[in-house]
Amino acid sequence: MISTATVYSITQGFTLRCDSIAPDKSISHRSAMFSLLAKGESVIENFLRAEDTMNTLQIVKDLGAEIEDDGHIIKIRSNGIQEPFDILDCGNSGTGMRLFCGLLASAKGHFILTGDEYLKRRPMKRVTTPLKDIGAFLDGRSEGDLAPLSIRGGSLKAFNYKSKIASAQVKSAMILAALSADGECSYEEPELSRDHTERMLKGMGAKLEVDGLVTKIQPLKGLLEPLIIRVPSDPSSAFFFAVAAAITPGSQVVIEGVTFNETRIEAFKALEKMGTLISYELKDEKYEPIGNITVTYAPLKAITIEDNISWLIDELPALCIAMACAEGTSVVKNAHELRVKESDRISTVVDNLKNCDIKTTEYEDGYTVTGGTLQPALINSFGDHRIAMSFAIGGLKCGMKIEDIECIQTSFPNFFDILKEITKVQI
Ligand code: S3P
After folding, report:
1. C-beta separation of 84 from 101 below 8 A
2. What is the pLDDT of residues 275-310, one digit of tens each?
3. Residue 107 region, left (φ>0) first, then alpha (ψ -120 to 50), else beta?
4. What is the atom index within ligand 1 of the atom nearest the CA of 167?
C-alpha cells in the first residue's frame, strides 16, 4: 500500500517551539549496540522509537541482551554477544548494517545481516573489504558488496587503515573491530566525519585517542563501563523545521535539546550563510554539547556548498528546498556520496525539483538549483524518508502531494504531527 500525504500551503508566518523532534538516530543506534560491550546495565533515555533504531534494538536482543523497556527508559544488560537463532534484519538502515559488521567481525558465531529492498542495493564493500583485510570472514552477494551478508566471527589483526571516504559508518565499523584486534590500531579519514562513536566509547572507558583525522584505538582488556545517556534531539530531523521557518516570511522556530556537535550542525551554518537568522544556546554537555537553536526568517540568497560535505550530507535534500526559495543559483559539489544514500539523492532531488518547476542541473557529484517559485507537484519519495520530508516542507510554499510516505517511519514517526502545528496535512 502506498500512502500519500497532501500538505497545504500557508499564507502567514508561524512561530513554533519544538520539544518533540525525533531523538538522534546515529546516537540511538550506537547506544543500543555499544551496550553489548558493557558490563552491567546501560540506561538509555529518549531512545529514537523509529523503525531503523527499533530494528537495531531488536538485533541487540537477538544477540542475547536482556532489554527492559518501560516506554520511556530502556535498560540493556548483556553477557557478551551470543550467536542468534535467526537472521538479523537491519530494515532500511545502512548505519545498522555497517556498524554491526564491525561489531560482529570478531564475535563468536555465525551471523546473517539482511535488510529491505533499498538496503540490499547499497554498497557494503566499504566495510566488508577492510574487515576482510584484517582477517574477518564476511561475504555477501556481488563479491561481498551487497546484503544479505554473512559473518563468521574470528580473530582480527591490528591495522593502520587510511580510508578514502569520510564516512562515520566505515570509521565506526573499523573502530568496533579494532576493540578486539590483536594490537593497537589506527584509522585515518580524509575529512572528519561525525564522531559519536569516539565520544561514546571514550565515555564508556575505551582507550581511544583522536588526533586530527587519525584515531588510535587500543584493544579492550575486558568489558566497558555501562552507558548512561539521554539521547539529544536529532539535528538532521530538526533541520526540516529550520527550513520551514527559513522559507516562510515572518516565522520563527525554536528547537530544544539538540546536539551542537560541530559535525552535525553544518547545515544550520549553511542556512545562516544564506541569510537566515540563527542563534544557539548551549544548555548541557554529556558525550555531546546539547542546547536550543532558534531559527528566524530572513530573505535567502544562493550558496555554494563544496566543503565539509559529510557534515551536512543528510540535510542536503532539505537544503535544496531553501535553495529553491533563494535568490540566485546555488551549487552543491563534491557530494558523490549522495548517490549511495537511502535513494540516489542527486537524481531524486533533481527530478523532484524539476517536477516543482525549479531550474536545476545534475552533475555526477552534485547539482545546481536556481531559486524560483515552487509549484505544487506529485512527489515521488523513492522510499527515502528525507526526500519525503523535504518536499513536504516545500509544500508550505505552494501545497504538495507526497507519495510513498511510509519511509518517514524509519527516522521521524511524529514528523506530520509537528508539521500539523503549522499547516493542514491530509494523509
Ligand atoms: C551515519 C553516517 C552517515 C549518515 C548516516 C548516519 C552514522 O553516513 O549519512 O545517515 O550514524 O554513522 P556515512 O557514514 O555513510 O557518511
Report:
1. no
2. 999 999 999 998 899 999 999 999 999 999 999 999
3. beta
4. 14
Q: Kindly state the DSSP code that residue 392 receives in the 8-state scheme.
A: H
Location of C-alpha cell 573502530 = 175
- Residue 1, pLDDT > 70, answer no
pLDDT tens, position by position, 108-152 = 999 999 999 999 999 999 999 999 999 999 999 999 999 999 999
- Write down the catalytic residue from 116, 195, 234, 314: 314
Query: For residues 144 and 136, is the Cβ–Cβ distance under 8 A?
Result: no
Closest atom of ligand 1 to CA, residue 166: 16
Dist. CA 168 → ligand 1 center (Å): 6
**Residues ≥6 apart with Cβ < 8 Å to 93:** 29, 52, 53, 55, 56, 115, 119, 410
Judge contact between 177 and 151, C-beta under 8 A. no
Distance 325 CA to ligand 1 centre (A): 27
Tell me the CA distances in angstroms from 260 to 240, 304, 336, one per residue in order: 16, 23, 26
Question: Nearest C-alpha to atom 10 of ligand 1 is from which residue?
Answer: 314
Cα 376 from Cα 365, distance rounded (Å): 27
For ligand 1, atom 13, name the residue with the nearest CA.
167
| Residue found under cell 545517556 | 229
Name which of 38, 144, 72, 73 is nearest 60 in CA terms.
Answer: 38
Tell me the pTM: 0.97
Q: How far is CA 186 from CA 5, 153, 269, in A?
A: 47, 21, 31
95 lines ligand 1 (CB under 6 A): yes
314 tagged catalytic: yes
Q: Which residue has the cell 533504531?
A: 53
